[in-house]
Amino acid sequence: MDARERLHLIGSIPLETSEQVFRALAQELGPWLKRYPDGETGQRSRWVYFQGQMLRAHPDMEIDPTVPPYPFVQWDGKVVREINQVRFKPTVDPNKVKFETGYDKLCDASVLVVAPDEQRIARIRQRDRLSEEQIRARMASQIDPAEARSRATYVIENDANFAQLKERTRAVYEQLSR
């Protein structure tokens, strides 16, 4: 088997737009890629910095005075920036906090792929070998499916077999391509 048949790229790609990333990857590596990253372009091109901004601006977070700032050190040892660490405010329950990234404002449409809870549990149990309790705890920390549905432009029900999921996905793709 050619090693290129197993390519899976993740992370940043130094191009300006996601379209440029997709075109470049398709041209150079298309036959061998299983998944394409969007390249973390635009606002997300400096991912760590972007995440820090989001956390520091969140009303439930504060600078942690007990942890010294994290130094960003360049190749020659020079500290180019220090980043303050953040923590939840003492009165905040971290399990009830939502972090809005703002990505929805950068998109023309959003697609939600969702399955019934019992199917999700069965699939995760088989894939990750977790207990039902662990799976339900993970699910409880995620966005409520009803809220996710209310935010989505398109919803793909993942409650059947792979062929039906593929058919439903293609239908949404065709709507998006118009």
Structure in words:
The structure is a single chain. By secondary structure, the chain is of the alpha/beta class. The protein has three domains: about 45 residues, no CATH class; about 50 residues, no CATH class; about 70 residues, Rossmann fold, CATH 3.40.50. The chain contains six helices and eight strands, in the order E-H-E-H-E-E-E-E-E-H-H-H-E-H. The protein has a two-stranded parallel sheet with strand order 1-2. A two-stranded antiparallel ribbon has the order 3-6. The longest helix is centred in the C-terminal third of the chain and has 15 residues. The mean pLDDT is about 85.
Give a short synopsis of this structure.
The chain is an alpha/beta fold and 178 residues long.
List the helices and strands and how they pair.
Elements: E1 7-8, H1 18-29, E2 33-35, H2 47-57, E3 61-63, E4 70-73, E5 79-83, E6 86-88, E7 111-114, H3 117-128, H4 132-140, H5 145-151, E8 154-157, H6 162-176
Parallel strand pairs: 1-2, 7-8
Antiparallel strand pairs: 3-6, 4-5
